[in-house]
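Protein modeling request. Please complete all fields; requests missing the sequence field cannot be processed.
Requester role: graduate student
Desired output: 3D structure, token encoding
Chains: 1
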Amino acid sequence: MKKTFFNYENSLLIILFLTFGLMFMDRMSFTFLMPFIVKDLGLSNTQSGLVLGILSLFFGLSTIIFSSISDLLGSKKKMLIVFVLLFSVATLAVGLIEDVTSMIVIRAIMGITEGPVIPLILAIVLAESTVSRRGFNMGLVKGSAPLMSGVLAPMILIPIAINYHWKWGFYVLSIPGFIMAIIIWKYIKEPKMQNDEAESKPTFKELQKVFAQRNIWLCMLISIFYTANLTSFLGFSPLFVSNVLNYTESQLQIFLTVFGIGCFIWFFTIPSISDKFGRKPTLLFFAFFSMFLPLIMATFTMNFGLTIGVILLLTCAFGYMPLFDSIIPAESVPHKYAASVIAGTILTGEVIGGTFGPVISGIMADKYDLHAPFYVGAIAAGIAFILSLGIKETKPDFV
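Delivered output (399 residues):
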């Protein structure tokens, strides 16, 4: 029988691609609407920072707690539906707030409801993917994050805020979540475990042993330094290109859009390369080149066109994320532990790297200048590369 494009694997991929990207659109919505929210609610810089940071903290904690529960219960589909519905309700609730206290509370709730979505989706993709397509599938789904949150979200939210009110942006964003929950319930099956895994559910003691494996704790460490590089770059490149390179607002918008598109392309290209050449060689190659983007930004003065070309090419510096935070951890353990190890990697990167990276970069920028955050990022990228040397190959036909 001839295979059709819309077989179960491809249909699953489309549904989870949209769900994954939608969650990141909801998460990043506050960033794009911040100028409107700050003006309306009269937030100070400290309050704005707290509103931004509170989500990451609860996001990371929720990721590991509920993903481990899903592994212990053996139910991925049901929990995914529940959390997609909950983060849609939380997004809707943001539009109802009237003061900074309620905004902080709702943002914390958003973090709790969004945290488990990433590892649950990736665990389902891992279980249902053809082995030869596993890297491509995982990378494509993760690529929806920069595409939908970095490119599509500002195109939708900013015009709504300008022409109506910023609250309507959250109302509009909440609707697709309810739709996706229904689609997941109707079309996605509970992922099948391997025969030996289906006989018993994981225990807490077994879960502890899983996290002691070398690949797992190394991936968690890599996640910390990768995230420090990423958040330093994202946090300070808009200020750098505006204040140092003197880009206009329209050029800044193009810069950020190209960055999102580049990350999307590399997020599924690099895992696809790993399907052909193995996980570890691919990880090492791109982890090494991850040092070049921040160094080039800090040391070379280029015209706008050349800068855009460099950004599109060297976003490969961030495109290897799916390897260490999803594919290698998930392939290093039985499928029944996949959500937990993915969640653990995300947790450490979010809470440690995502917090200390921009803080250290900010301190160095105040002490020296706006070039400093890129050097901080380059050092973090170099440490991530060194840690990658210790990873064991996990691709089944390369082991």
